[in-house]
Amino acid sequence: QVQLVESGGGLVQAGGSLRLSCAASGRTFSIYAMGWFRQTPGKERDFVAAISRNSGVTNYADFVKGRFTISRDSAKNTVYLQMNSLKPEDTAVYYCAADRRSPFGVAGYAARYDYWGQGTQVTVSS
């Protein structure tokens, strides 16, 4: 099993920045891609960004391109999401996810991911 713990969420004004972290523990050697998703009440969980095991490949949702950056520190088993130029519509619970089935993929859909964190709230005020 793999455990994922997110941190770094909070309240920020529009135009501001936040950096989310996700620390993995347990059978981390089994993890391939890691990703971030977000969800607002009553809506489906949306893909935000993903990164391959060796950090060589990344994938971003169109609505975050140029504003968010995903990175990964394999030595620390941690993935980060740097969020800049935040907008009120970025308000959501952000979830970290890990994929143990796709050695080379950076999938953009939730069904591909096997492990999930508990989520961290990001609120952007206007």
Short key terms for the protein model shown above:
126 residues; mainly beta; seven-stranded mixed sheet; four-stranded antiparallel sheet; globular
3D architecture notes:
The chain has 126 residues and is mainly β. Helix content is 0%, strand content 48%. It has strands at residues 2-7, 10-13, 18-26, 34-39, 46-51, 58-60, 68-73, 78-83, 92-98, 115-116, 120-125. Strands 2, 4, 5, 6, 9, 10 and 11 form a 7-stranded mixed sheet that branches. The protein has a 4-stranded antiparallel sheet with strand order 1-3-8-7, with no helix packed on it. Strand 4 (34-39) and strand 5 (46-51) form a beta hairpin. The relative contact order is 0.32.
Write the layout of secondary structure elements.
Layout: E1 2-7, E2 10-13, E3 18-26, E4 34-39, E5 46-51, E6 58-60, E7 68-73, E8 78-83, E9 92-98, E10 115-116, E11 120-125
Parallel strand pairs: 2-11
Antiparallel strand pairs: 1-3, 3-8, 4-5, 4-9, 5-6, 7-8, 9-10, 9-11
Instruction: Kindly estimate the percentage of residues that lie in beta strands according to DSSP.
Output: over 45%
- N-to-C SSE series? EEEEEEEEEEE
Mean pLDDT across all amino acids: 95
Structural class: mainly beta
Give the termini distance in whole angstroms. 40 Å
| Spans where pLDDT lies below 50 across 5 or more residues | none
Estimated radius of gyration? 13 Å
Question: How many DSSP-defined strands?
Answer: 11
Major β-sheet annotation:
7 strands, mixed
What is the helix tally? Answer: 0
Cα shape: globular
Proportion in helices: under 10%
